[in-house]
Design a protein that fits this description.
Organism: Maritalea porphyrae
Structural class: alpha/beta
Number of helices: 5
EC number: 4.1.1.36, 6.3.2.5
Family: In the C-terminal section; belongs to the PPC synthetase family. In the N-terminal section; belongs to the HFCD (homo-oligomeric flavin containing Cys decarboxylase) superfamily.
Cofactor: Mg(2+); FMN
Bound molecules: cytidine-5'-triphosphate, calcium ion
Distance between the termini: 29 Å
Keywords: Decarboxylase, Flavoprotein, FMN, Ligase, Lyase, Magnesium, Metal-binding, Multifunctional enzyme
Order of helices and strands: EEEHEEHEEEHEHEEEEEH
Length: 228
């Protein structure tokens, strides 16, 4: 436990961060998931903590351990993450870094799916998972965090897709990253961010995921402190 220094820029602010990948079971031994190392979410949570925030870190599966000094909730499925996020509210800021599975198999059998003798493969019937970011962005102003921040991993037309995504999701800020082959963003230690808000977009230089965490933390601190 680290005592919080009240002179730090985010002292007294409660900030929720989702991170890592969700897993959707098909049966007791198989699941559907997304590519996510959890490195960017972890770096953001660490930077927020260093700036004095009380961090609620809600994480799926990640390659890196959660940062020290944050309150960790481990979840498996998108529905679990949705429930944990809504239970952790209210907060001042909510940041959605998790790679959430958009769908889940309609039925996750309690027994292992066996190969059929006829050489046929089973087909999967999927249903939509709840959109966690969208659900928080749409909350009534009395419950909605002051800042709702999303991420978008895009492989093509990054600017157009991300601009439309910010509007569709109803979030205040959106950090888009180009994860197309060759950028090294997925699983790597650096990130190229295009930052979107209601004013437009800014292209940030390529920097480490720790530096992205610090840049975002500074921006959050200025936004919250300018509203006082
Ligand atoms: N997200 C979420 N809940 C979901 C899906 C996504 O909270 N069920 C969040 C992610 O954590 C991220 C943002 O929404 O902050 C954008 O996720 P992304 O997958 O890029 O957006 P989608 O609307 O799912 O669009 P796409 O069809 O590109 O996957
Ligand atoms: Ca998605």
């Amino acid at each position: 436990f680290q005592a919080t220094d009240d002179t730090l820029p985010l002292a007294g602010k409660r900030i929720l961060v989702t991170s890592g990948a969700t897993r959707e079971p098909l049966d007791p031994v198989r699941y559907l998931t997304n590519a996510s190392s959890g490195k960017q979410g972890t770096a953001i949570a660490a930077a927020l903590r260093a700036a004095g925030a009380d961090v609620e870190f809600i994480t799926g599966v990640a390659e890196v351990p959660p940062p020290n000094g944050v309150n960790v909730t481990n979840i498996t499925t998108a529905q679990d993450m949705y429930d944990a996020v809504h239970e952790a509210l209210p907060c001042d800021v909510a940041i959605f870094c998790a790679a959430v599975s958009d769908w889940r198999p309609r039925q996750a059998g309690t027994e292992k799916i066996k190969k059929k003798g006829d050489g046929e493969a089973p087909s999967l019937e999927m249903v939509l998972n709840p959109d966690i970011l969208k659900s928080v962005a749409a909350l009534d102003p009395s419950e909605r965090p002051e800042l709702v921040i999303g991420f978008a991993a895009e492989t093509e037309n990054v600017i157009e897709h991300a601009k439309a995504k910010r509007e569709r999701k109803g979030c205040d800020w959106l950090l888009a990253n180009d994860v197309s082959a060759g950028t090294g963003t997925f699983g790597g230690d650096s990130n190229s961010i295009i930052f979107f808000d209601d004013q437009g977009h800014e292209v940030w230089p390529r920097m480490s995921k720790q530096e992205v965490g610090m840049a975002l933390t500074d921006r959050i601190a200025s936004a919250l402190n300018s509203q006082k």
